[in-house]
Amino acid sequence: EQRVEELAEAQRRTEQRVEELAEAQRRTEERLQQVVELQQWLVDRVGSMKGQLLEFTYRDKAPAYFGPWIRRPKVVDMNELWDTLESQLSEEALNDVLLLDLVIRGQPRCLPEREEVYLAVEVSCVVDREDVERAERRAGLLRQAGYAAIPVVAGETATEKARMDAPLFGVAMLRDGARHCGDNAVERWLTAAAAP
Question: Which residue in 48, 100, 114, 153 has its CB near the most CB atoms, within 10 A?
Answer without folding.
Answer: 153
